[in-house]
Amino acid sequence: MRLTNPDIPPEWQSAYRDFQRQRERLFTIFGAWLLLATMVAYHFSHELRGVRPPEPWSLEHLLRLPVYLSIGLALLSHWTGVPGWHPKVFLRMMSTSLMLMMLGLFLVYFQDKPGGVPQVSEGLMISFFGVTMMATRGLRDWLVQFLPPLLLFVIAATLLRISPADLVPHLFGPTAMLAVGLITSETLRRLGNHQFVNEQEVKQLATTDQLTGLLNRHAFLPLIHHEMDRARRRSERSFCLIMGDLDNFKRVNDTHGHEVGDLVLRETAVRVSASLRQQDVLCRWGGEELLILLPETGPTGGLEVARKIRAAMADQPMQVNGIRIRQTISLGVACFDGERAPEQLITRADNALYGAKAAGRNRVVMAPGKETGATPGSGHSGLG
Ligand SMILES: Nc1nc2c(ncn2[C@@H]2O[C@H](COP(=O)(O)OP(=O)(O)OP(=O)(O)O)[C@@H](O)[C@H]2O)c(=O)[nH]1
């Protein structure tokens, strides 16, 4: 089942899953070391307190075994990547086995060694708190970790005919600690989520154009880099860039005001987005300039998309603040031709756009290149 957190906007859910995984990995590794240290200290505390350690293969040893096993698996996975389970699995294994051990020991001591009960209930207090802290996903996680061992505890206590009234005085401290743990863990979880949301907002501000909601230049360049690397590795996976520029946009601002100009830019972003596939990336390159990345697209596909965008703008006038505006766009298409840097390809798209403007605007021009078979100056031009 996929984790979705209602406090996190849907577009950040995927990043949130990564964040959660990272958090759980940290908790797993710290938890494993802490638990190991506690187990070793617990082992030697028998001698320090003058209590004879239990016989090998006693019930006490059997109860400890799953804890050591889950610690071992968590550390092994951290060092070697095997087993490659999700960190939450290790957290649940460690906390459930620890709970089983502590509750089991409590019953053993309650039955056979009543003198040791206060020490076990101390241990129960600490582990209730520790296990609650491992419930990194809130109440649901907490229930998964606590309910099965608690249920087994109640069944075992009933079978051993231990009266609940006798148990309650010893369980008061641990229960109080459980409440403290729950509050602490929920506070930490919410603080972590706040931090995640803040970071996402800062990231979004840094990569998104505030007017149109499109990617900005800063966020777009790495994507071209990435696509170039891919195209170089696999020659059949070429790609194209389309540079678009609104025609006579200054006139819109001058005639109707900047506010209307802004709304035209927004409507342009909507129309162009609607003309693209999901894997295409649209960016606001400058004032009224757009740059579009079309992955896995050759010259024919590139031209086709550019023509579609041109038609989406020109065929239907915009209604902005009750004003009817016919806003056209000129477009230059350049497909990857072995360029070494994104700037070289962008310049080719820009030159093609310049050609479209020079040819009268509201048209598409293909940059000359090996793939198109055209020679410099003879780029494909047309109203699409
Ligand atoms: N409203 C608004 N206008 C902008 C924004 N960014 C740039 N502009 C305007 O876009 C206009 C661009 O004008 P020009 O570069 O002369 O180009 P043009 O009028 O579109 O003419 P051609 O490109 O030659 O067809 C300028 O008036 C800028 O002020 C913006 O965010 N909002």
UniProtKB/TrEMBL annotation:
<dbReference type="InterPro" id="IPR050469">
    <property type="entry name" value="Diguanylate_Cyclase"/>
</dbReference>
<feature type="transmembrane region" description="Helical">
    <location>
        <begin position="116"/>
        <end position="135"/>
    </location>
</feature>
<keyword id="KW-0812">Transmembrane</keyword>
<dbReference type="GO" id="GO:1902201">
    <property type="term" value="P:negative regulation of bacterial-type flagellum-dependent cell motility"/>
</dbReference>
<protein>
    <recommendedName>
        <fullName>diguanylate cyclase</fullName>
        <ecNumber>2.7.7.65</ecNumber>
    </recommendedName>
</protein>
<dbReference type="GO" id="GO:0043709">
    <property type="term" value="P:cell adhesion involved in single-species biofilm formation"/>
</dbReference>
<dbReference type="InterPro" id="IPR043128">
    <property type="entry name" value="Rev_trsase/Diguanyl_cyclase"/>
</dbReference>
<keyword id="KW-1133">Transmembrane helix</keyword>
<feature type="transmembrane region" description="Helical">
    <location>
        <begin position="26"/>
        <end position="45"/>
    </location>
</feature>
<keyword id="KW-0472">Membrane</keyword>
<feature type="transmembrane region" description="Helical">
    <location>
        <begin position="89"/>
        <end position="110"/>
    </location>
</feature>
<feature type="domain" description="GGDEF">
    <location>
        <begin position="237"/>
        <end position="369"/>
    </location>
</feature>
<dbReference type="Pfam" id="PF00990">
    <property type="entry name" value="GGDEF"/>
</dbReference>
<dbReference type="InterPro" id="IPR029787">
    <property type="entry name" value="Nucleotide_cyclase"/>
</dbReference>
<feature type="transmembrane region" description="Helical">
    <location>
        <begin position="142"/>
        <end position="162"/>
    </location>
</feature>
<feature type="transmembrane region" description="Helical">
    <location>
        <begin position="65"/>
        <end position="82"/>
    </location>
</feature>
<dbReference type="GO" id="GO:0052621">
    <property type="term" value="F:diguanylate cyclase activity"/>
</dbReference>
<dbReference type="GO" id="GO:0005886">
    <property type="term" value="C:plasma membrane"/>
</dbReference>
<dbReference type="InterPro" id="IPR000160">
    <property type="entry name" value="GGDEF_dom"/>
</dbReference>
